[in-house]
Each structure stands twice: as structure tokens, then as C-alpha cells.
């Protein structure tokens, strides 16, 4: 993955640069909006990670100019946890956003999701073991049996299924499915997971796993695999 980071905080730049290069990414860095715009327009990146508060030219201005000519996927980073910022970023053509501070693994998951989305059109069906999720009709089946899900449960299932095999924290699930920061109130996620599990994991091997202290993962594990599922 070829990534441009536009960020002025040295600590964040170091953290991202180290993490991404360790994961085999090629990384360019711009420490202000003007250099960021220049590099983003000149090169073809798989993703641009774009801070909002930047010297020279802010992230929204960079995004605006980039979008006039290119559809390079952009993840905005913002320290300001305001709805206005998110709405504005997405309205201006950002593909995703992360609120600082964020975990590196969460950024990585979003980057992978974005590049996958960009590489191929979204599949119409997600399949995990004998679980089939039809994104068009918004229906889910397990071993041929229809599963009755609420809109939120379906959104939760899709969020997990799109990141099959990746552990999602309660916080990132809260952001993705409820579009908000729950912070302390991640109980909502726990309750929803429990309900979803009671619907999808009735028959066959368990697909929705709890990873203690980390979050949840949807995957079909090989028979006899060690499990650390906790209720
Ligand atoms: Ca900044």
C-alpha cells in the first residue's frame, strides 16, 4: 500500500510512519498542507491520511483541491470530536475519518477497508462459513435459514463481516454502527453483540467471538482451534 501522511505533529508522524512501514506500506510524509496538496496531486497514492489542523493550508482545503481532480481515498484525522467536522469532511469528499487519539490497528483496518473498497466494487454478498449476508436485500441466512435482524443488528453484522478475521474494539464498533463515540457507554455494544450472537450463532460452529479485553471478531475458526471466548 502506497500512503501519503499529511500531518504536522512529529509524534503522530513517527508513530504512523513506523507502524505503516512495519506493515509493508510505502509512506510519504508532508508536514504541512501545501506540501500535502503538492504530493497528493503529483502522485497516485492508495490512500491519503489527512490531518484537519495543518499549517499552511488546512485539511479541508487540501481535500477540496484534491477532489477537484482526483478520487484518491482520503481518511481525515481530527482532534476535534465535533459532528460538524465529520459532516463537513464527508460532505467534502472524505472517505472516512478518525478522531484523535486513535489506535494504530483501527487506522490500519480502515486503510485496508478503504483500499479494498477502492480496488473492487463492493461485493453484493458476504459469506462467512454457512453465514450469507445479502447487502442488496439486507437479509442474512445461516445454513439456509433466514435470520431476523433489526436494522442496527444488520449494520453490526455487516461491520464485522466486512472485517472478517479482524478484531474490532467496542469503541470502533460504536463509531461504525452508531456513528458516535460511546467512551464509557460501550455497554450498548455488548448488549447488541449478545443479541446478535443469540441470533446468528444458534446452529453450527460459532462465528462471533469475544476477544477478552480487545473486542470482537467474526470468523470461522478451524475445528478444534483454541478459543478464548468469554461471555
Ligand atoms: Ca495537526
From TrEMBL:
<dbReference type="GO" id="GO:0000976">
    <property type="term" value="F:transcription cis-regulatory region binding"/>
</dbReference>
<dbReference type="GO" id="GO:0005829">
    <property type="term" value="C:cytosol"/>
</dbReference>
<dbReference type="GO" id="GO:0006355">
    <property type="term" value="P:regulation of DNA-templated transcription"/>
</dbReference>
<keyword id="KW-0238">DNA-binding</keyword>
<dbReference type="InterPro" id="IPR006291">
    <property type="entry name" value="CusR-like"/>
</dbReference>
<dbReference type="GO" id="GO:0000156">
    <property type="term" value="F:phosphorelay response regulator activity"/>
</dbReference>
<feature type="domain" description="OmpR/PhoB-type">
    <location>
        <begin position="123"/>
        <end position="220"/>
    </location>
</feature>
<dbReference type="InterPro" id="IPR001867">
    <property type="entry name" value="OmpR/PhoB-type_DNA-bd"/>
</dbReference>
<protein>
    <submittedName>
        <fullName>Heavy metal response regulator transcription factor</fullName>
    </submittedName>
</protein>
<dbReference type="InterPro" id="IPR039420">
    <property type="entry name" value="WalR-like"/>
</dbReference>
<dbReference type="InterPro" id="IPR011006">
    <property type="entry name" value="CheY-like_superfamily"/>
</dbReference>
<dbReference type="GO" id="GO:0032993">
    <property type="term" value="C:protein-DNA complex"/>
</dbReference>
<keyword id="KW-0104">Cadmium</keyword>
<keyword id="KW-0597">Phosphoprotein</keyword>
<dbReference type="InterPro" id="IPR001789">
    <property type="entry name" value="Sig_transdc_resp-reg_receiver"/>
</dbReference>
<feature type="DNA-binding region" description="OmpR/PhoB-type">
    <location>
        <begin position="123"/>
        <end position="220"/>
    </location>
</feature>
<keyword id="KW-0804">Transcription</keyword>
<feature type="domain" description="Response regulatory">
    <location>
        <begin position="2"/>
        <end position="115"/>
    </location>
</feature>
<dbReference type="Pfam" id="PF00486">
    <property type="entry name" value="Trans_reg_C"/>
</dbReference>
<keyword id="KW-0805">Transcription regulation</keyword>
<dbReference type="Pfam" id="PF00072">
    <property type="entry name" value="Response_reg"/>
</dbReference>
<feature type="modified residue" description="4-aspartylphosphate">
    <location>
        <position position="51"/>
    </location>
</feature>
<dbReference type="InterPro" id="IPR036388">
    <property type="entry name" value="WH-like_DNA-bd_sf"/>
</dbReference>
<keyword id="KW-0902">Two-component regulatory system</keyword>
Amino acid at each position: 500500500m502506497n500512503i501519503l501522511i499529511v500531518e504536522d505533529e512529529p509524534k503522530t508522524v513517527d508513530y504512523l510512519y513506523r507502524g505503516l512501514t512495519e506493515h509493508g506500506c510505502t509512506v510519504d510524509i508532508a508536514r504541512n498542507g501545501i506540501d500535502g496538496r503538492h504530493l497528493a496531486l503529483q502522485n497516485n497514492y492508495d490512500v491519503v491520511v489527512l490531518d484537519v489542523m495543518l499549517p499552511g493550508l488546512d485539511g479541508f482545503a487540501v481535500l477540496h483541491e484534491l477532489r477537484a481532480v482526483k478520487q484518491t481515498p482520503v481518511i481525515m484525522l481530527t482532534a476535534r470530536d465535533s459532528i460538524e467536522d465529520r459532516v463537513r469532511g464527508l460532505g467534502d469528499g472524505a472517505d472516512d475519518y478518525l478522531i484523535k487519539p486513535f489506535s494504530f490497528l483501527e487506522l490500519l483496518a480502515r486503510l485496508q477497508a478503504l483500499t479494498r473498497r477502492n480496488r473492487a466494487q463492493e461485493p453484493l454478498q458476504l459469506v462467512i462459513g454457512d453465514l450469507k449476508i445479502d447487502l442488496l436485500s439486507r437479509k442474512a441466512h445461516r445454513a439456509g435459514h433466514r435470520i431476523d435482524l433489526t436494522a442496527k443488528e444488520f449494520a453490526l453484522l455487516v461491520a464485522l463481516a466486512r472485517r472478517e478475521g479482524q478484531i474490532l474494539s467496542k469503541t470502533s464498533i460504536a463509531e461504525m454502527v452508531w456513528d458516535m463515540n460511546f467512551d464509557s457507554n460501550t455497554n450498548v455494544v455488548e448488549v447488541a453483540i449478545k443479541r446478535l450472537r443469540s441470533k446468528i450463532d444458534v446452529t453450527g460452529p460459532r462465528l462471533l467471538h469475544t476477544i477478552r479485553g480487545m473486542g470482537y471478531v467474526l470468523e470461522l475458526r478451524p475445528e478444534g482451534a483454541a478459543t478464548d471466548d468469554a461471555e
